[in-house]
Amino acid sequence: MHEHQQRKQLLQIAHLCYERRLLVAMDGNLSVLLPSGDVLCTRAGCHKGLLTDDDLLVVDRRGNKLRGSGTPTSELKMHLACYDERPDIRAVVHAHPPISVAFTIAGISLARCVLPEVVLTLGTIPTVEYETTGTDALAARIGPWIREHDAILMDRHGAVCVGRDLLTAFCNLETMEHTALITKTARDLGGARDLPPDEATKLRQMGLLRYGGPPDAVKKAEAGGHDLPSACTACADPAPSLRMAHVQGPTAAPSALEDAVLREVLKSLGKP
Predict the structure, then answer these.
(1) Helices 136-146 and 76-85 sit at what angle, rounded to 10 degrees?
(2) Which of 111, 160, 161, 211 could form a cystine bridge with 124, CB 3.0-4.6 A?
């Protein structure tokens, strides 16, 4: 894909991130590797819903600006860390998907095997410990996790999703937020049940061999293994404490209190 096409796609993906409410205001940043090996990225302080070609810059792999106006995104070090860790990565999307971020604030992990299609394509979605945004420490924290995952959450901060192109990275981001929404809804309804360990393992191996993924994970699948965490492969209680009152069905036995109230009502009506 030529640079002109990549610029056009980056604008489209940025607009989609805003339209899908995966970021707001000046949040988020995107980048893609150019055929030259340099990086096309968004500039700092630009609205992704209104992004234009003038908001894009070209930097080298050390972060030095080569072309464009303004200052590169403050998260450029994080993007470069992703490219440095995995030669297969060609695009990085960082956004602030609200439900996914809420899970990190609540201290609830999305690194569980709940949805078959997510296990198939992403495996699990880990949460990386908090680091200050835009720092070397954050970039260093992200690197090792991206080596093994295509989508990660940063505690209280947002998501980093990578791919072989911008569309793939965006799809990983969209899948993350969709997973968070379904998981939250299931928890509100009474509990999110994990997939059986054998099924989770089978799905992940199938997905890595069929669709690819982090090179280290693909190697594990080719050797008959997988990259799933113990939360997916060990027996665990899949049902968290219930947050909603459940109405008992017609066959449920009445409680002692219900039985006493019923007797009083019948007595007042003159019935035995």
Answers:
(1) 30
(2) 111
Residue 41 sits at the vertex; the CA angle it makes with 37 and 43, to the nearest 5 degrees, is: 145
CATH number of 3-188: 3.40.225.10
For residues 221 and 213, give the distance between their C-alpha atoms in angstroms, rounded to a whole number: 10
Contact between 68 and 46 under an 8 Å Cβ cutoff? The reply is no
At which residue do the structure tokens 């994970």 appear?
217
Read off φ and ψ for residue 235, nearest 5 degrees. -65, 135
Place of tokens 């080596």: 147
Give me the residue label for tokens 């610029």.
7
How many CB atoms are closer than 10 A to CB 246?
8
Q: What are the residue ranges spanned by the domains of the chain?
A: 3-188
Q: How far apart are CA 32 and CA 3, in angstroms?
A: 10
DSSP secondary structure string for all residues of 173-196: HHHHHHHHHHHHHHHHTT--PPPP
What's the gap between Cα 176 and its chain centre? 3
Residues facing 14 on adjacent strands: none
Q: Is 261 helix (H, G, I), strand (E, B) or coil?
A: helix
Nearest residue to 103 via CA among 154, 150, 27, 144: 154
pLDDT tens sequence for the chain (272 residues): 899 999 999 999 999 999 999 999 999 999 999 999 999 999 999 999 999 999 999 999 999 999 999 999 999 999 999 999 999 999 999 999 999 999 999 999 999 999 999 999 999 999 999 999 999 999 999 999 999 999 999 999 999 999 999 999 999 999 999 999 999 999 999 999 999 999 999 999 999 999 999 998 999 999 998 989 888 987 544 433 323 333 333 334 445 554 554 565 455 555 55
